[in-house]
């Protein structure tokens, strides 16, 4: 029993760490959903984001309550565990069930039938596990059959859009610098400007500081429900490989006095600074097609046509 008590703080710490990671992941997911929402879909998207957040918080409270009560049902595994992995885990439990449990030794059936009672309990437990395995199998089959391949859908849609606009993709490395690397390529191709990624970060930061009022809407923090300090934001922008977004696109579009068009699946291109006098720059935005999440590529001239 003492060993079990010693494990409780470790289980609690693991649970809290998982909750923290899940909040961070859900925040990133809902932020992406809100970013892609149109005027028509924004209301439903915001409602769905709130529902997802409430569902997660409700589940977290339940898990913490189970831990406080000493429930052995509290799981330290994230709820997003792949069904196939869960299936393998459950099947392993059944396979490792000691044979002696189903046939207790040294208990005579002529004294009160205690052997039969214990065997039935074991059978019931195994039956519940087998039922759970079957449930997971059905869920895995449904997921395989009905799951939507968002990556494939987005890629096909983007290929059509990019070709229709007379452009072609110039791949850049999918990391925190992808937006700036894409703009770097566009400036070299369309403006004849040679600039590196770090210079672009500093240019964007300088423009933001010169026009702080233009960027207040972008500084709202989903985690704290407060406005971020602009100086703190620009410090992170220039000193870390922080991912760029609409805020940096707007700043650089104004710095170079040019429109920047962002092609994305499911909507018309987003154009920043459409009154800019210099040649337009073209970027591709992907939400599902890259392992690290959101990604930007440069779009060079391809076949005849154009936005």
Characteristic terms for this protein:
about 300 residues, alpha+beta, 5-stranded mixed β-sheet, Piso0_005521 protein, Cathepsin B, Chain A, about 55% helix, globular
Describe this structure in words.
This protein is of the alpha+beta class. It folds into three domains: 1-80; 81-147; 150-301, Alpha-Beta Complex (Cathepsin B, Chain A). The protein contains ten helices and five strands, in the order ααααααβααααββββ. The chain has helices spanning 2-36, 42-68, 83-95, 99-102, 114-146, 150-164, 178-191, 197-210, 230-239, 246-255; strands at residues 167-170, 260-264, 270-272, 281-286, 295-301. A five-stranded mixed sheet has the order 1-5-4-2-3. Strand 4 and strand 5 form a beta hairpin. The longest helix has 35 residues, at 2-36.
The count of helical stretches stands at: 10
Structural class: alpha+beta
Domains, number: 3
Rg estimate, integer Å: 27 Å
What is the element layout, followed by pairings?
Blueprint: H1 2-36, H2 42-68, H3 83-95, H4 99-102, H5 114-146, H6 150-164, E1 167-170, H7 178-191, H8 197-210, H9 230-239, H10 246-255, E2 260-264, E3 270-272, E4 281-286, E5 295-301
Parallel strand pairs: 2-4
Antiparallel strand pairs: 1-5, 2-3, 4-5
